[in-house]
Structures are given as structure tokens and as C-alpha cells.
From TrEMBL:
Name of the molecule in the record: alpha-L-rhamnosidase
Domain Alpha-L-rhamnosidase six-hairpin glycosidase: 435-775
Location of the Bacterial alpha-L-rhamnosidase N-terminal domain: 148-316
PANTHER family cross-referenced by the UniProt entry: ALPHA-RHAMNOSIDASE (EUROFUNG), ALPHA-RHAMNOSIDASE (EUROFUNG)-RELATED
Domain Alpha-L-rhamnosidase concanavalin-like residues, every copy: 326-429
Domain of life according to the entry: Bacteria
EC number: 3.2.1.40
Organism (species): Saccharibacillus kuerlensis
Domain Alpha-L-rhamnosidase C-terminal: 783-855
Length: 970
């Protein structure tokens, strides 16, 4: 039995993709091996058109001497449109051992750019059905299959949204197809394998059309028809019979049209469904359609068609309501227990014409009533009208809502309580594969991680939106770029961001500027930190996935953005005096302003340097040496100009804000003694604010990483663990289940920040997640090789109240893990390094002679190539495998108890709690405590970390004499 196995073959990030339009698709695979230090020495790929045999090969790479197992390009003959290709992979280890062939995988091409479509754009005859009417359109076509079908595919798209039916059943499980692209420049089509759905003889296709993003309401100004004012469908069914003949059934004037039960459907406003108007069996061949009207050809503006590029939107989770609430205002409200994005599915039995309404909201107000104010003009209202025929089931089709709470009206018998089993929440988002996980000893931080993930779920609905509930839901570039690194930890985002970046490139202005939102549906030019998505996102994808092609595709766009900034103003090295958002929603913002106190020119020039550095580095990767020289010189000039403009001769930054100091450090704009001073002053700024942050969208993503990287990791952790305003854990303590737009979206007194702009599902501040993975758990890329080909494991612990942290990531090479635990006696670290990678592992506060891998001295451990002592840490170079390191906690590294964490478990009659509240009313004592580590009051009193004065401790000691207490840090 071979010890090396090839697993998880993928094509363009996906498993067995259908209908891709990539002329040289890239293949990737993972390896399994019980052997430590396993590296691939060579690979072989075989491709054939035959599903059951590799006897007739289209392409055989032969044995290629290479470690590459990610993004290996197909190099065989030119691919043909609408064809399935089967492939398999074999590898050899560095010791010459070969694997068996992998399981057979495949990809299937779409049209590959050829103009071979038979379909025509069709819509109902406007003389019979008003094209601007609200009800969803129904289109149908009866046809005959004349023989045994061996292959059948439906290719097609629609404007706005469509659902496809064949012989009375839904085709596919995608929602809100064809997704949202820059429609006038790029429109996705989808491919469906329906081979098993056709019958010899009569068949029928059906298409349902709604407004969606194409012609529905978008933005906060009630604007409609931003791309066009006509719904239309463009589909064709290609059938191959057993005798080799092919038949095409395409949309044309022979189709018929009507309307149905969906009377109204808008993304923001919701949907109205009248079940009495259902046309049962409307997509079956036997349906009588004599009352239907003709479809007509619809002349459309040029809509370049591209194959589906990203993961479709699907139902990904099912949630049941936790409880029914009767609010003080008398409303009946379902609590889903989780702020989610999707739709409610209901069951109801009632007389015909009964009207049931569901109105969706995120939070309750301080009085306990459901709060709709932050929805602005978005109704989020779903109305269902029963047909009166037994148990009816319904979920909306062409809309989605952002909500935790649902106000129910009109449900039969609801005055006696709602039957919870008749309501479920269907979570929808782009169906990306989860890849990352983080956990630590602090349950509030774990809830923060949960909130980050659910914020990403709710806002990754085909584009990275800013919020999923109000009249906005736009692809803001700034939100996307600050969150990209965290996003790619949590989910496989390769296809998602590849598609969105192509829209960004398509929307980019001729002068290189990049709109605020992509797709660009609101007025606006360009802005620092927002438009820098053009450089930051492709570069992050390259670092995360080793995706060189995304750099090649986006390079001119990246250059264009830098050249745009270069052209602004009189000095090509400064970006000054133009519109910018600044440090959006920072707590240090002046009154009546959304922008923080950090000067916008400072921010703009800092990001100008950052993007220039990225383009310089991308040029290096792509071998564009002339550009490397040009952008190296430009970067040098920007850094000099920045220091001249924003740093005093003595080395003090012109702006005394946290964000200014963070950006100067994060983007390497200061060096030497100035860098040390800047880091020290940043730390002082944080300490002076009692370990609270004052950063907004621009500064927050870099705040903790910069502190940790510059020797102030304990400060960064204290920032994370703060529970009062402004902090990450404040919203957690307030019951948040997603990330808020404002640090103080709900204030201490329960009032709201503002109706105007107050999303409770807004992922930007979730960017802290990347630092939690990288610094707290210690799972990181090594800077020497992209895509986790080389891994760096370096947890940071000691001197704060975490006793363990662990993270995992399903990388392109396989699963990586880094997890540590600490006690007063020992420190343990577990690391999992996938085959065909290596890692540098740093063990903090360790002595080489004391480190064991399981029970073996580290120098003799299998898979450890080298180990050195450097100051108070041990640095290891290791190969693949699962490692368990342990060493004595000889340096006294141990958890301490931070502010607001003096927790008391009362063993007797509660008297101790009363005494504590008397002497330290600011300390919250939960009703029950799970003690993680007991300490005496005397020990606590020796440390100011407890957040209680020595005088208070002394008073407690005297008054609590005789009480048995357990103190724990949490």
C-alpha cells in the first residue's frame, strides 16, 4: 500500500465545475501521507474525454519534476466548447515512491467565448402584459424529445433574476441567479445538467423572471432601472441523442407568457405571494396554456455573456426560532436567536384569502419592541395570501432579508401562540466552502469569532455587501479590502473575489480611478482606502492562494489605480486635497462628522504608498523588471514626501491619533528611531485611553497587528478583551451575533446610535479575525513563499488571561493547525503541517534543551530539520506532519486577570456578592462562574491587573473574613 495518496482534485478552485469558460484551466490537489516531512518530487496529469477509460488520452503531462500541486495549468490541445474533460493525478515523493492515481475528476467547458448561441432574448408581449408591471413573469415552452437522451444541458441567463423549471420541477438549487455583475459589461450565464430530467416524448421548460438587481430598486434614492427596464430570458437546451444527433430548444417567439402568484418582488422591500393565483403544473408539458400570451423577441443592449465564475447563492443553513415574544406594544415576534440573512419558510393552513405578513428586523429596542428604524426605506415585508387547500408551504423567491426578529401578523390562531415548528429560517449566501476555525479560552472572544463568520455569511451574497438589511446592500470597496484577509481565513474565497475583481476592473474609469462601490450603481469617483481594493485584494489572494493568474489579470487595473493617485495634485508623491472618506466612523470623529480625526491627506498618502508597494511587489512576481524599477523609485519618493509632510524633524507624527500611528507603522512609512518612537507613542495612546481603541474602518484592521509586531502584544490583547465602549467585546456583551457598523450601535442605556446609518450586520470591524488567527493562535503564512507553501507557526502568549488558543485553516495544500495551552507548569503547542509544505515554528519562552516533541528531545524528533535558540525562543524548521511540543513554563509565563474579570463564585449565602458590589460597584459578577484558576485575594491584590484598587482589596479582605471564595480569570 502506497503511503502517499492524492486527494481533493479541483479545477479553478472547484470540484467538478460545470460550464466554465477558462481556456487553460488550472488543476490543484492535496496529498495525504503518514510520513513526516513529505514533499512531492514530481507529478503526472492525464486528461481524457472518455468517462470510463484513460486508454485514449487527450493530454498526458508525463512525469514532471516539480513540487507544484496548486494551480497547475492544463497544457493539452485547445479545449472545445460544451465538452466534459476527465482528469487524474499521480505524484512521486522526494524518496521516489509513487502514489496511486487519484480518483477521476472532471471539468466541463461552457461556450469558451464562441458565438454559437441559438437563444434569443424574449419577454412577454408588451401589448398584453405591461413590461413595467410588478408581478413576476412566467415563460414556458413545450417540446418533444424524439429519442433516448444521452446528454442534455441548459445554458442561459436572465435579466433581472430567474428561476428555471423543467417538467414541473426546479432545475438547480441556486438562488437569485444569475447574480449581480456589471450587467452592461458582463452578464453571467449558468449551465445545468438535465440529462436525467428529460423523457422521450413531450417535455416542457419554464422560466420565472423577477426584477432583482437589474431593474429593481437599488441604493437609498429609490432609483430603479439602473441597467434596463425590461425583464427578459435567454436560454437554450441542447439535447444529444443516442444516435449522435443534437437538438436545440431555445428561447424565441414560440414561447408563451403569463404572470403568476408572485405579485411583487423587490430585494429591499420584500415579496407578495398570492397562492390563489398559482397556475399548477405551469411548467409541465400537459399544462393548458391557451390563455397565455405570446412571447416576443426583446432587443437588448449588448450584454457580454460570461460563464458562472463564483459560487452560486444557496441555502446553507436552517435555523429554527428560539421563541415567540409578545412585545410591550403587543406584537407577536419570532426570535431566531441569530442575526441572519435569508428568508423565512412557513407552513400554514387557513381559509382562502387569509393574509399572513412577516416583517423582518435585526434588534429589539430598549423597551423590548421590534425596531425597524435602521431599515430606512427598506420594508423587508413578506406577504403570503393563502389558497385555502390544506397545509400550504411558502418561502419567497426574488428577495432576501437581514434579520433576527420577525413580526408575524395574520397567522391563524396566533393570539394563542405561534406553532414554532411551522417556521424555519433559511440562511442564504454565496456557497463558499468554510476553511478556517478559531477558538480560545475566553468565551466572549469565541462569540466574537462566531459573529465575524456570521457577518461574512450575511454580507457575501454574490458581492461583498456592506449590510444586508437596509436600502443599501452595495459592494463597498472599502469594506471588502479591510476584511479580505479575514475573509480568506474563514472561507474559500477564490472564485468569489475573482468574479468581483473582474467587475471592479470592468467598472474602473479610463483615468484609473475606482468607484466606491462595485458594481457601480451610485455616483462617486475614487477614494483612498476604498479604491485601494484594486491592489489590496488581488495581492492578498496571491499571498493566500499562490494565485499568480489573478495578479496577471488585474495587473493593469492595479497599475491604473496607482497612476490615478500619481496624477492627482501638483506633487506626484503626495495625494492631497481631494475627496476622501477618511477614517470612517472612528470614535475620535468630531461631532456631526462620520470621519475620524486623522487628516484625510495623511490617510490618502499612506495608502498611496501601500498600493505602490503592492504594485512594485506584483511586478516582481510577474517578472516586469522595468515596472519594478519605476515603482521602487515612486515608492521611495512617496515615503520621503510623507516624512517631509507628516513627520516632524524630531520624529513626531503630525497627527496624534491611533490611526495615524497605525498606518505609518503598517505601511513601513517610518524607520529606525522614528519607527520605535511611533510604536511607543501608539502604545501610549492606547494606554492613555484605558486600553480602548479610537480607530475607524481605516485604522482598525491594522491596530492589533501593528502593536503585536512592534513589541506591544499585551496591549493588543488588552484591547481585544475590553468589554466597554469602544471595543469588540462591547457588542458581544450586548448580545450581538454579528458585527456592528458602529462601536456604539446600541448605547449603554439601550438607545440607538442613529436611524440614519446603523447596521447590526456590517463585517468591517471583523477584520480583527485575521490577527486572532495569526497572532493569538500563531497560524500564519511565511513571507518567503505564497499560498502557505511555507507556513509560519508563532503563537504569542504570556502575560494575559488566555490559557489556550487554537486555529485551523484548510489551505490549498491541506489542513494547517496551530494550537497552544499554558499552565503554571508547562507550555504545549500542537502544529499540523500538510504534506508538500514546510514550516518555521517559533516556540516562545523556551529553552532548546527543555523542549520535547511528544517524549523525544527536539534535536532527535522526526521531521524537525533544524532547531536553534534565539534569545528566549526556539526556532524550528520542520516538514509535514502532526507535532506535539511541550516544555516547562520556566519563565513564569502565566495567565493574569485583566480589567473587569474578578469573578466570585459564592459558596454560601450570597453575602460575598453583596460585599463585593458594595466595595467595587463597577465590577460585574455573573450569577455563576466556571473557575479556570483559583487564586487568593492576597494574590489578586498583588497585581493591579485586577482592575480594583489595593484599598478595595484590603476592605474586601477584612469584610469577607471567613467566607470561602473561588476567584477566576475569564
Amino acid at each position: 500500500m502506497n503511503s502517499v495518496k492524492v486527494t481533493a482534485p479541483t479545477c479553478e478552485y472547484r470540484t467538478n465545475p460545470v460550464g466554465i469558460d477558462v481556456k487553460q484551466p488550472r488543476l490543484s490537489w492535496k496529498l495525504q501521507s503518514a510520513q513526516r516531512g513529505m514533499l512531492q518530487k514530481a507529478y503526472q496529469i492525464q486528461v481524457t474525454k472518455k468517462p470510463d477509460s484513460f486508454d485514449e488520452l487527450l493530454w498526458d503531462s508525463g512525469e514532471v519534476d516539480s513540487e507544484q500541486s496548486v494551480h497547475v495549468e492544463y497544457e493539452g490541445p485547445a479545449l472545445q466548447p460544451r465538452t466534459r474533460y476527465f482528469y487524474r493525478v499521480k505524484v512521486w515523493s522526494q524518496e521516489g515512491e509513487s502514489s496511486d492515481w487519484s480518483e477521476t475528476a472532471w471539468w466541463e467547458t461552457g461556450f469558451l467565448g464562441c458565438d454559437d448561441w441559438k437563444a434569443q432574448w424574449i419577454t412577454p408581449d408588451p401589448a398584453s402584459i405591461d413590461p413595467l408591471s410588478e408581478p413576476a413573469f412566467l415563460l414556458r415552452k413545450k417540446f418533444t424529445a424524439s429519442g433516448k437522451v444521452v446528454r442534455a444541458r441548459i445554458y442561459g441567463t436572465g435579466v433581472g433574476l430567474y428561476e428555471l423549471f423543467l417538467n414541473g420541477e426546479r432545475v438547480g438549487d441556486e438562488l437569485l441567479a444569475p447574480g449581480w455583475t456589471t450587467y452592461h459589461k458582463r452578464l453571467q450565464f449558468q449551465t445545468y445538467d438535465v440529462t436525467d430530467r428529460l423523457s422521450i416524448g413531450d417535455n416542457a421548460m419554464g422560466i420565472m423572471l423577477g426584477d432583482g438587481w437589474y431593474k429593481g430598486n437599488l441604493g437609498w434614492d429609490n432609483k430603479r432601472h439602473l441597467y434596463g427596464d425590461r425583464r427578459a430570458a435567454y436560454f437554450e437546451l441542447r439535447v444529444t441523442y443516442e444516435d449522435g444527433t443534437e437538438e436545440v430548444v431555445a428561447t424565441d417567439h414560440s414561447w408563451k407568457a403569463s404572470t403568476g402568484p408572485i405579485r411583487f418582488a423587490e430585494l429591499y422591500q420584500g415579496e407578495t405571494y398570492d397562492a390563489r393565483l398559482e397556475q399548477e403544473g405551469w411548467s409541465r408539458p400537459e399544462f393548458e396554456d391557451t390563455d397565455w400570451v405570446p412571447a416576443v423577441m426583446q432587443k437588448m443592449p449588448e450584454l457580454p455573456l460570461v460563464a458562472q465564475e463564483n459560487s452560486p447563492i444557496r441555502v446553507t443553513d436552517i435555523l429554527s426560532p428560539l421563541e415567540v415574544i409578545t412585545t410591550p406594544a403587543g406584537d407577536t415576534v419570532l426570535d431566531m436567536g441569530q442575526n441572519m440573512v435569508g428568508r423565512m419558510r412557513i407552513k400554514v393552513s387557513a381559509p382562502a384569502g387569509t393574509v399572513v405578513t412577516l416583517k423582518h428586523a435585526e434588534v429589539l429596542d430598549r423597551d423590548g419592541n421590534i425596531y425597524f428604524g435602521n431599515l430606512r426605506k427598506a420594508d423587508q415585508l413578506v406577504t403570503y395570501i393563502t389558497k385555502g387547500e390544506g397545509v400550504e408551504e411558502y418561502a419567497p423567491t426574488f428577495t432576501f432579508q437581514g434579520f433576527r426578529y420577525v413580526k408575524v401578523e395574520g397567522y391563524p390562531g396566533q393570539e394563542n401562540g405561534l406553532p414554532l415548528e411551522n417556521f424555519v429560517g433559511e440562511v442564504i449566501h454565496s456557497d463558499m466552502t468554510p476553511t478556517g476555525d478559531f477558538e480560545c479560552s475566553n468565551p466572549l472572544v469565541n462569540q466574537l469569532q462566531h459573529n465575524i463568520v456570521w457577518g461574512q455569511k450575511g454580507n457575501f451574497v454574490d458581492v461583498p455587501t456592506d449590510c444586508p438589511q437596509r436600502d443599501e446592500r452595495l459592494g463597498w470597496t472599502g469594506d471588502a479590502q479591510v476584511f479580505i484577509d479575514t475573509a480568506l481565513f474563514n472561507y474559500q474565497g477564490g472564485p468569489f473575489f475573482t468574479k468581483w475583481l473582474r467587475d471592479l476592473k470592468a467598472e474602473q474609469f479610463e483615468n484609473g480611478g475606482v468607484p466606491f462601490v462595485i458594481p457601480a450603481v451610485i455616483p462617486g469617483d475614487s477614494a483612498a482606502a476604498w479604491s485601494d481594493a484594486a491592489t489590496i485584494i488581488p495581492w492578498t489572494m496571491y499571498l493566500t492562494y499562490g494565485d499568480k493568474r489573478i495578479l496577471e489579470e488585474q495587473y493593469e487595473s492595479m497599475k491604473g489605480w496607482v497612476e490615478y493617485m500619481r496624477s492627482q495634485g501638483d506633487d506626484e508623491h503626495l495625494w492631497m486635497k481631494v475627496f476622501n472618506f477618511g477614517d470612517w466612523l472612528a470614535p475620535d470623529a468630531p461631532s456631526n462628522s462620520y470621519s475620524g480625526a486623522t487628516p484625510k491627506d495623511f490617510i490618502a498618502t499612506a495608502f498611496y504608498a501601500y498600493s505602490t508597494r503592492i504594485v512594485r511587489d506584483a511586478a516582481e512576481v510577474l517578472g516586469k523588471q522595468e515596472d519594478v524599477r519605476m515603482y521602487s523609485q515612486l515608492l521611495e519618493g512617496i515615503v520621503k514626501a510623507f516624512n517631509r509632510e507628516f513627520v516632524s524633524p524630531s520624529g513626531r507624527l503630525a497627527s496624534p491619533t491611533q490611526t495615524a500611528h497605525v498606518l505609518a507603522l503598517a505601511f513601513d512609512l517610518v524607520q529606525g528611531d522614528v519607527k520605535k518612537r511611533t510604536a511607543m507613542e501608539l502604545n501610549e495612546l492606547v494606554v492613555a485611553q484605558d486600553y480602548h481603541l479610537s480607530t475607524g474602518f481605516v485604522g482598525t484592521p491594522f491596530l492589533c497587528p501593528v502593536l503585536s509586531a512592534n513589541g506591544y502584544h499585551e496591549t493588543a490583547v488588552k484591547l481585544l478583551l475590553k468589554e466597554d465602549l469602544p471595543s469588540w467585546l462591547y457588542s458581544v456583551k450586548k448580545g450581538a451575533t454579528t458585527i456592528w457598523e458602529h462601536w456604539d450601535g446600541i448605547r449603554e442605556d439601550g438607545s440607538f446610535w442613529s436611524d440614519n446609518m446603523n447596521s447590526f450586520n456590517h463585517y468591517s470591524y471583523g477584520a480583527i479575525g485575521s490577527w486572532m488567527y495569526r497572532s493569538l493562535a500563531g497560524l500564519d503564512r511565511h513571507q518567503s513563499e505564497p499560498g502557505y507553501k511555507k507556513i509560519r507557526i508563532e503563537p504569542k502568549f504570556g502575560g494575559y488571561s488566555l490559557t489556550y488558543a487554537t486555529a485551523s485553516l484548510e489551505s490549498m495544500y491541506g489542513q494547517i493547525q496551530s494550537g497552544w495551552s499554558i499552565s503554571e507548569d508547562s507550555i504545549k503547542l500542537k502544529a499540523v503541517i500538510p504534506p508538500n509544505t514546510t514550516a518555521e515554528i517559533v516556540l516562545p519562552h523556551a529553552r532548546l534543551e527543555s523542549v520535547r516533541e511528544q517524549s523525544t528531545a527536539i534535536e532527535q524528533a522526526d521531521g524537525v530539520f533544524s532547531c536553534i535558540q534565539e534569545d528566549d525562543r526556539v526556532i524550528l524548521q520542520v516538514g509535514s506532519g502532526t507535532y506535539s511540543f511541550s516544555y516547562p513554563n520556566e519563565r513564569g509565563v502565566k495567565p493574569i486577570y485583566s480589567e473587569h474579570t474578578l469573578l466570585i463564585d459564592v459558596m454560601e449565602d450570597g453575602r460575598a456578592m453583596e460585599i463585593l458590589q458594595k466595595h467595587a460597584p463597577g465590577i460585574t459578577v455573573p450569577p455563576r462562574v466556571i473557575a479556570m484558576k483559583t487564586k487568593t485575594l492576597e494574590e489578586i491584590s498583588k497585581s493591579r491587573e485586577a482592575g480594583i484598587s489595593r484599598e478595595t482589596i484590603d476592605a474586601l479582605l477584612k469584610e469577607l473574613n471567613g467566607h470561602e471564595l473561588s476567584l477566576s480569570g475569564k
